[in-house]
Sequence to fold (343 residues):
Amino acid sequence: MFPTAIAGSLPKPDWLAEPQKLWPQWRATGEALAQTKADATLLWIKTQEDAGLDVIGDGEQARQHFVHGFVEQVEGIDFENKVRMGIRDNRYDAMVPQVMGPLRLKGRVHAMEAQLARAHTQRTLKFTLPGPMTIVDTVADQFYGGGSEGRIKMAFAFAELLNAEALALQADGVDIVQFDEPAFNVYMDEAADWGVQALERAAQGLTCKTAVHICYGYGIKANTDWKNTLGQEWRQYEKVFPALAKSSIRQVSLECAHSHVPMDLMALLEGKEVMVGVIDVASDAVETPEEVADTIGRALQFVPKMKLTACTNCGMAPMDRAIATRKLYALAQGAEIARQRHG
Ligand SMILES: [Zn+2]
Fold:
């Protein structure tokens, strides 16, 4: 009951990349970089296990950013000449690569981290990929013709590539493939119209568990400023959850701790397993285990106890490493208290 997991990313150690940055520069190059990526992956597997987490991830140590890590391995994209683009409906500007031609995978994207992680943990292994709609929102289109038709075409093209990598991850022994779709909380109508369908295309044929993570973003200033404009009740999930409930995706990861998301929206996910965010990634204050257990307790009004995983609200990439580590311990200890309370 109440297995524990991270949403996806973890801070990169200072010797791997610039700390507390969303698009950090790597410290090394070539072979040395490959080695530091592997070392950091192992370090976080051990740390997650020591903290007591049940579902282990690679912490996204081998990718610079959760979207561009995938896109870098795609042919038809100009990664050298990035352009400035407003992303997440112009919430903030990012330097993004440009789609210039037909898309094709150059080869495997995450084989190294997935195989390394599988060789070094016996626990459930979750692996994250960006979702098609979020990728489309984080690259500049010079090929698919723009507009909503172009976005849809490009999303399904990326979904095919994601599907190939997801099937390969499953063959590597990954137990859960999770797609990250923060864009679902920004383009709610499009998410319900075609985003969920594109997601299902990306997950097609997978027999392992499939999941989607939808959040209000990393704890960076642009996101906290945006959240301040969303009012007292954040109802973004209301549009997409019914579409997800009908979909083949088995698990949904959502933001809950210190969030203005009305908890009853989780009831719209009837039949799904829910990864409830019980750790706030936008605050350096470390939750007490009791707080974590209380959040789990409140979520139990809307999620059956055998379907609840306790999770972080979002990735922890831009956080301080020591604080993130303490939050992992609080997560595991809080879930243990909840097991005693509700077992
Ligand atoms: Zn997130």
Remarks:
- The chain is about 40% helix and 20% strand.
- Residues 7, 182, 213, 215, 314-315 surround zinc ion (CB under 6 Å).
- The first strand starts at residue 4 and ends at 5.
- The radius of gyration is 19 Å.
